[in-house]
User: What shape does this take?
Amino acid sequence: MSSADAILDVQHIAKALGGDAGSGRAATSIIGDLAFAARPGEFIAIVGPSGCGKTTLLMCLAGLMPVDSGRVVFEAKPVSGPPAGIGVVFQDYSRSLLPWRTNVANVVFGMKRLADLSEPQKAERARDLLQHVGLKGFEDFYPWQVSGGMQQRVAIARALAARSHLLLLDEPLAAVDAQTRAEVQDLLLALAAEYRQTCVLVTHDVDEALYLADRVIVLSQRPTRVLRDIAVDLPAPRDQLSTRAHPRFLALREEVLRLIKSLPKAH
Assistant: This one.
């Protein structure tokens, strides 16, 4: 893929954390010479061993953490801070939502950069999005009045409300129960298709990665790099029963798990 085709182009980035010049403590290299690109509308899942730097990578992609070398390019512009057009859904939805705002007000908050919409228009768009993610009737509830799965749906609606062209998802379903997880996985697939949303998902769950993604990027142990970039050539449409039982799904699952299990333990 050429850089011109990519909505996100990660160009040989490196990142170290924890150094202290005053005490002479050296920084720990977390990301080392990592590169990949995403096309518009592509769903990419990133997996790897625990502690390899997946969340650090996502923070760099979002412009929430600067890289030490290389660069992240979004829509042909280098990322030097949080850019308009990138939405982030965090694992800890209970902290990312504002508890003193209703669900609809939380979604409106995601539209603060949209100067072309009036406040009534933002509220109308927020209510439409909440209905779209299955929260009709809960628009005026507060986050603490609804379940964890519902809170994560609010967080997804807020990210979409900002007209994000790229959605970054950091373990967004790790803290919900299995049934809710399956429901929100299907919601993400449907929203990605409807909005032609480019998504980059960080997950520890290999099955989830394969179910959702067009490509699965397997990371090495830290300092992390791309170990393998695997095309997920599964038949569409996908569903929780037939897709997960498909022989190709099982073969890909074995391939990814073998890669991760073959890596040396982190020190």
About this structure: The longest strand covers residues 28-38. DSSP finds nine helices and ten strands in the chain.
